[in-house]
Amino acid sequence: METESQKPFHVDVGNLLAFNPFHNFPSLPTSREELVKECLQEGTKLVQAVADSLFNLPSTEDVDGPLVKLPPPSTKLPREKHLPKPKPPTKWEEFAKKKGIQKRKKDKVVWDEQTGTWKRRFGYDRVNDDKDIPIIEAKMADEPGADPFAKRQDDKKKRVEKQEKNRLQNLKQAAKIGALPSHVQLAATALPITGTQAPPKKVTKDELGNVAGMAATATASGGKFDRKLPGEKPAKKQGKHRKFLPVVEGSGIGSREKEQTENVLNKLISKHSHEILNVGKAVTMYNVKKEKRARNKRSQEGKSASATNKLKPKKQLHKNTGKKGPGSSKKGKAK
Amino acid sequence: MHLYTLQTLRFCSSAIMMRIKTPKNGRVRRELEKRAPKLVETGKKTLILQGTKTSGTLNGVLSEIYHLKKGGAVRFTRKNDNIRPFESGGETSLEFFSLKTDCSLFVYGSHSKKRPNNLVIGRMYDHHVYDLVEVGVENFKSIESFNYDKKMAPRVGSKPFIAFVGEGFENVDELKHLKEVLLDLLRGEVVENINLAGVDRAYVCTAISSNKVYLTHCALRLKKSGTVVPRMELVEVGPSMDLVVRRHRLPNEGLRKEAMRTAKDQPKKKIKNVSSDAIEGTIGKIYIPDQKVGDVALPNKAKGVKRERREAKKKEANERASKKQKEESE
Fold first, then answer.
1. Is B108 on the interface with A (CB under 8 A)?
2. Hey, which residues does B125 pair with through a beta bridge?
3. Interface contact flag, B209 A28, Cβ < 8 Å
4. Cβ atoms of B37 and A84 closer than 8 Å
5. DSSP secondary structure string for all residues of B124-143
6. Nearest chain A CA: its distance from B275 CA (Å)
7. A60-119 pLDDT per residue, tens
């Protein structure tokens, strides 16, 4: 037995862990090697303590060596996932419990009267298959001309659809409380906005980004004060798109509204065209046009020598000369 | 997806149509089952990744941690510039990676002037950040710099011994937290049976000062001693480093309580018809329903029936014989 000098180590054999809470370095050892040596010494003591308890456990002989059964670990550590929740009962299970309906065990093979053999309950070559019925007798209630075989198939389809719908509802209920079975995932398909059965269009990332940006700035303050989700990037087009004048004007700004209306009115009611005209702009436009004409003439003279009949790329048939004011450029050529 | 008629659409209260997706493959189904939450959990996987800037030492540290945890770790080698574990919005990438790789422990390395050789070790609960510890690595010595007898090298995946030395681990809050996180990171899988011939590694963590921990990885040599218990000898093989605790974030109380809940804490299901006695031990009661002796059909002709028939025949024969005798006598 080793000397038990203050040896209440906390030993957790399940984790092969040992903790010595009583050791301290009164003065840090001078060199690194000293420190390492002391740490290793202490570590050896602790590992020895664990090994003591470990090797004294009852062991069974195995091919590779002695096997011991470890006790469960005593240090509690947090889980990585939540505890699995039990599945809620489905609508049918609740109904069955209420009515007291017991589950009956069904056989895989059933006796088929028609052929006189044992057939499967479901699957290939099954007992009451729709396609094996040769004749369906007409009843008084049937309307003439209706296909009873097709009607049977339709009924079956409807039954299957109903079953699928019920299954989806049960799974949605389980998903609501977080007890969805591990192999099932519920995927949201696209919303049919209209009643049509058009296939939902696939939206690209850029389109989605644009729409999201528009939606983000669609508030009264341009989305500035909205609480953002963690990790959300700022919208592409920030701020408001239109600027309105304040309802109540401040004192030192002047009457902006008056200015605005004055401008508009002047443009409309002007007596002289030169008041509406932007002379500088008109002059620049005229100069540019002249230069272009000169350039074209020069290039035409140059190119007509080469007898190429190739069609030249048509440049700007719908040339926008930017006639903003009513008939400005023609009038600008005033002598 | 089945087609809804306009009528049924009007009756649907929620307009979101959902589709049930189940795996068509057995392999995929098994993978999903492995990732589902279980009552008793097996080992946690670790995600090792880095930020925009790393240093040489940090690269070494990350790759060595990956080697130590070879079976249960995933290493990302690209830089990730949008991960800031301690900021509220900077964890979304981490949570996404944790979800996709099914890792609940992560080690994030980054290097900056303010925090050189920085490692953030964190844990996840349900793929959301549970707690974080930020440490700086100093005096890192890699595996190559140690010389030792290569035959003693610990094998990949063996269960390690873990030793914590120092009162700092008990008194200082941050070191206590670091102890818990290191235990989670280093311990590997929780196993029931262990082969005593296969224990060959140990991690020693010493609290040098109130914020520094010396961590080293050693191989074990088992030497003969007189008793069943061999004498342990530690030989430093693996990486050794000084960890300086910088920041840490504890989980909030509610989350901690929920994560610490185990299956045992749930009320134990009462087993019916079992009682235990001090003298006799566990006693069980079996209730047998009344046997319907007369109604049970015998499957094959029991011996008794045959014998009955044989005796009946014999009796008849005797009777006939006696009748004959009578006739003769008459």
1. no
2. B128
3. yes
4. yes
5. EETTEEEEEEEEEEEEEE-G
6. 26
7. 888 888 899 999 888 989 999 999 989 999 999 999 999 999 999 999 999 998 889 999
A231 in B contact zone (CB under 8 Å): yes
pLDDT band for position B325 (cuts 50, 70, 90): confident
A11, A71 Cβ separation under 8 angstroms: no
Q: A27-46: per-residue pLDDT in tens? A: 777 788 888 999 999 999 99
- In sequence order, what are the beta bridge partners of B282? B276
Q: Quick check: helix, strand or coil at residue B44? A: coil
0.80 surpassed by pTM: no
**Is A253 in a helix, a strand, or coil?**
coil
Three-state secondary-structure class, residue B205 = strand
Which of these, A56, A76, A58, lies nearest to A67 by C-alpha position? Answer: A58
Phi, psi torsion values for A72, nearest 5 degrees: -65, 150
Tokens standing for residue A107 = 């056989």
Q: Which of A50, A59, A80 sits opposite B125 (nearest CB)?
A: A80
The residue among B186, B220, B232 with the most chain A CBs within 10 A of its CB, best to mutate, is B232
Is the CB of residue B137 less than 8 Å from the CB of residue B117? yes
According to DSSP, the residues that pair with B249 across neighbouring strands are: B132
User: For an interface test with A, which of B165, B190, B260 has the most A Cβ atoms less than 10 Å from its Cβ?
Assistant: B165
Q: Are B41 and A52 a contacting pair at CB < 8 A?
A: no
Sequence letter at residue B305: V
What ipTM does this complex have? 0.72
Q: Which of B161, B329, B134, B328 is nearest to B244 (CA)?
A: B134
**B115 in Cβ contact with B165 (< 8 Å):** no
CB B125, CB B144: distance < 8 Å: no
H/E/C letters for each residue in chain B? CCCCCHHHHHHCCCCCCEEEECCCCHHHHHHHHHHCCCCCCCCCCEEEEECCCCCHHHHHHHHHHHHHCHHHEEEEEEECCCCCCCCCCCCHHHHHHHHHHCCCEEEEEECCCCCCCEEEEEEEECCEEEEEEEEEEEEEECHHHCCCCHHHCCCCCCCCEEEEECCHHHHCHHHHHHHHHHHHHHCCCCCCEEEHHHCCEEEEEEECCCCEEEEEEEEEEEECCCCCCCEEEEEEEEEEEEEEEEEEECCCHHHHHHHHCCHHHCCCCCCCCEEEECCCEEEECCCCCCCCCCCCCCCCCCHHHHHHHHHHHHHHHHHHHHHHHHHHHC
